[in-house]
Design a protein that fits this description.
It is built from 6 helices and 9 strands; from the N terminus they run H-H-E-E-H-E-H-E-E-H-E-E-E-E-H. The chain has about 200 residues and is an alpha+beta fold. The strands form 2 sheets. It has a 6-stranded antiparallel beta sheet. The radius of gyration is 19 Å and the shape is elongated.
């Protein structure tokens, strides 16, 4: 566990004690990145502890032997980790998006998308979805309004998947039922499915 310009002894003790009680799960679970539920620390909003395996982080890039045996742990939010991340996805989330050394950070929700907007030319390349910030997601969602050939797929931290399209109004499908929404409703829907615990 590390911190930069945000050290909090109580929070660090709470995280380390929490992980110590779950040591077997921390070490034995094969997923590159997991969220350990049930964490709390007085005065903090973190609700899980994240754990990343050695193959998915670069905590000690100059010492590969040490790096290969160190598990990273950090206070986190349940909206940030799905537990289904590949090694590459876990590495990207941990290294670029979560800012885990800032113990005062706000949540960075898991927003995985694949989209295409023929009108603006924006979109993901190929079939692989990419991680984006919630703000970028809402921006691209709003740009799809009125573009009937556009497509967007969203996955969140609960591994729920939705397809969103414009057809005179917004249509949101989870593979079962389809819901119609207005522009304001879809922004509220997006915030809920991205951030809700």
């Amino acid at each position: 566990m590390s911190s930069k310009d945000s050290y909090d002894a109580e929070l660090c003790r709470a995280v380390l004690a929490f992980v110590r009680e779950r040591e077997a799960e921390v070490v034995d679970r094969p997923e590159p990145l997991i969220a350990l539920p049930g964490f709390s620390c007085l005065g903090r909003d973190f609700d899980v502890v994240g754990r990343i395996r050695p193959q998915a982080h670069r905590l000690f890039p100059r010492d590969p032997d040490l790096n290969s045996v160190v598990f990273g742990i950090f206070p986190a939010y349940s909206s940030e980790i799905s537990g289904t991340e590949s090694v590459d996805q876990a590495s990207e989330r941990f290294g670029r998006m979560l800012k885990v050394s800032d113990l005062n950070r706000m949540p960075s929700p898991y927003v995985l998308v694949r989209f295409s907007n023929p009108k603006s030319g924006a979109g993901t390349i190929g079939e692989l979805p990419v991680f984006v910030s919630p703000d970028y997601f809402v921006h691209e969602l709003r740009d799809l309004e009125g573009v009937e050939a556009a497509r967007l797929e969203l996955w969140n931290h609960r591994n729920e998947k939705w397809r969103v399209r414009w057809d005179g109004d917004w249509r949101v499908s989870d593979g079962g039922q389809e819901i119609r929404m207005t522009g304001d409703e879809i922004v509220l829907w997006a915030a809920k499915v991205i951030s809700e615990r």
